[in-house]
C-alpha cells in the first residue's frame, strides 16, 4: 500500500495523545513531538542528504578549488 508521511494527508487522522506519561519515571514527556521532528524519518532529512557527498572528500570545508587554466583553448 501507499506509505504516507505526516503532511497534509495525515491531519484528519490526528486523534491520539501527543503528551503522554513517561514509561520509566512517570513524568510528562512534553518534548516527545520535538524529538520526533528532529529524527530522520520520512521527512526532509536535510542534513543527511549532504553527508555522503562530504564524506567522499573527507569532510573538508572552507577551501577553494585550484583554477583550471584550460578556458582559453576551449573558446578558440
UniProtKB/TrEMBL annotation:
Q: Which GO terms describe its biological process?
A: translation
Record family assignment: Belongs to the eukaryotic ribosomal protein eL37 family.
The UniProt keyword set, sorted, is:
Metal-binding, Ribonucleoprotein, Ribosomal protein, RNA-binding, rRNA-binding, Zinc, Zinc-finger
Q: Do you know which Pfam families this protein is assigned to? A: Ribosomal_L37e
Q: Write down the InterPro entries for this protein, in alphabetical order.
A: Ribosomal_eL37, Ribosomal_eL37/eL43, Ribosomal_zn-bd
Which protein, by its recorded name, is this?
Answer: Ribosomal protein L37
GO MF terms, alphabetically ordered: rRNA binding; structural constituent of ribosome; zinc ion binding
Q: Which SUPFAM superfamilies match?
A: Zn-binding ribosomal proteins
Is rRNA-binding tagged as a keyword? yes
Give Gene Ontology CC terms: cytosolic large ribosomal subunit
